[in-house]
Amino acid sequence: MKRLTLILALLAASLAAQAQQQPDRTRLLLILDCSNSMWDHWQSASKIKVTQQVLLSFLDSVAHSGSSPASGEAAAGRRGGEVDVALRVFGHLNKDQFGTRLEVPFGRDNIYQLQSKIKTLVPQGGCTAAAALTDALSDFPATGSSRNLILIITDGMDDCDAEICDVARQVQLSGVVVQTFVLCIGGNLSAHASCAGSVFPVVNEEEYSKTLYDIFRLSGHKAKVVLNMVDASGDLYETEHPVAFYDHRTGVIRQSTIYSVDGKLKPDTLLMDPLVTYDMTVFTHPPLRREAMQFSIDRPNNIDITVSEGTLKVQYAGQRPQWQQPNVDAIVRRAGSGERVAAQEVGETGQYLAGRYDVEVQTLPVTTLRGVEVRGNAATELSVPMPGMLILSKPKGITTGAIFRLRDGQVEFATDLNPSTAGERLLLQPGQYEVVLHPQNTTLYSKVQTKRFVIESSQTTKIQF
Question: Which of 21, 260, 270, 330 has the fewest CB atoms nearer than 10 Å to its CB?
Fold first, then answer.
C-alpha cells in the first residue's frame, strides 16, 4: 500500500500543477459499475471493495493537495486544481433490477460527499451501462468553459445493454463530451467495452491506481504535433491542403485545419488530445490517410508524409469556334477501379498524386482517356477535339429521339433529344452520327425517321426533317 499511497500523492501533485497551467476546468464524470459481478473476488478483496479503497485514497489525496500553504487551513474536504468530479452509479438501486442515478453532482467542494457515497455502495443489480451513459449527458453543467470526460469503471460489459456502441457514438456526436474511457477491472475486455470508449485494462491493484493517474495526468495536457509534408527528396512540400483528424474508435471528426507551408514559414504546431487515438486524412487527390495514431505529451510528435504530386490539364485542340464554349467537366478516376477522385473543368489545372488515372471528359458523347499517367513535379496535358455545332430542326408535333455516333460498324449513344422543342442546338464531338426520331402519336416502326450526318470541329452542321 506504500507504493499505492505514493502514486496517489503524485497524482494529486500533478493535478495541482495542471491547475496552474490550464485555465479551463476539466469535468470528470465517474460512472461506477455496481452490478452483482462486482462482488467477485479479485486480488486482495472483492472488486467493489478494491474499487472503493482505490477511489477513496485517490480522492483523499486530491483533497489534501488542495490546501493553501499561506492560509494554513485544514485541507480535508477541499480540492485544488481545476478538475471537478461527479459520480453516477448503476446496478445499486434494487436487487436484481436495472437502474442508474447521479449520486454526486459536480461541485467545487464535493470530495467529502463523493467519499461518503462511495463507502456506502452495495452492488445488487444488473448491468445498465448504456442507460447510465445516455443519462450522463445531462450530468454536465451547461454553463462555464470545461473539458468534459467520462470514465466508466466496470469489470466487463458482456451482459450489458447491446446498444452501448450506438449510445457511445451518440455521446461523442453530441459535442458535450470530449472523450469516454473504460477502466476494465481484471482486464476482462469485450466488444461492448471496446466500442464504449478508450479501454484501459487493469490486471492488479497497482495497475488500477496507475491507470487512474495516467488518465488524469493526460487529461490536463495537450500533445504538440507537427505535420510535415515532404517531397521525394525530403524537403518540405510547399502546398496547401485541408487536413482532418478523426477519433479512430468512433470515426467522429475531432479537429480540422489547413496545412500550409512555403519557403519561409515552417508548418505550425497542432495541439492534440493525448488520450485520443486518431485517424488522419490529408485531402490531396486522392486523399492520403494515416490510421491509429497516438501522441505523447512528453516528446515532440512529428507526422512525416511523403507527397509526390503533379498537375493535370485537359484542353480543346483545334480552331476556336465563333460560338461560346460551355463549361465542361472532366471527371478523374483511379485507373481500373472507377473510384472518383475529383472533377475539374476543361481548361483548368488540377493537382494529383503521382499515379495512373482514367479521365472522363463530359463531351457529347463522353470522351474517356484511360491510363493517363501523372508524374511527380511534372505537368500532364491532355487534349480532346474541339466540338462542332449541330442545328437540328424537327418535324411538327411531339417527337422523341436520340443521337448515336457511328464508329467501326458500331453505334455509341450520344444523347437523348428534347421532345418538347421543335429545334435543338447541340455541341458534338467530331465524327459520323445518326439521328433517330419517333412521333409520339404512333407506335408504327414505319413512322420512325433517321438521318446520318457528319460533325467537324468548329463547324456548324444543319439537319432538317
Answer: 21
Residue pair 280/293 in contact by the 8 Å Cβ criterion: yes
Cα 364 to Cα 435: distance, rounded to the nearest angstrom: 14
**Phi and psi torsions of 375, nearest 5°:** -110, 150
pLDDT (tens digit, 0 to 9) for every residue of the chain, 465 residues total?
Answer: 443 443 344 344 444 444 444 446 788 899 999 988 899 999 889 999 999 999 998 787 666 654 333 333 333 233 334 678 899 999 888 765 667 899 999 988 898 999 999 999 999 877 778 888 888 889 998 876 778 889 999 887 654 555 777 888 888 778 788 788 888 888 766 666 677 778 888 888 888 888 887 777 777 688 999 999 988 788 888 888 999 999 887 788 889 999 988 766 778 899 998 888 899 999 999 999 999 999 998 888 999 999 999 999 999 998 888 888 778 999 999 998 999 999 999 999 999 999 999 999 999 999 999 999 999 989 999 999 999 999 999 887 778 899 999 998 899 999 999 988 889 999 999 999 999 998 888 878 888 899 999 999 999 999 998
Q: Which domains does the chain have, with CATH numbers?
A: 2-219 (3.40.50.410), 223-306 (2.60.40.1120), 309-385 (2.60.40.1120), 388-464 (2.60.40.1120)
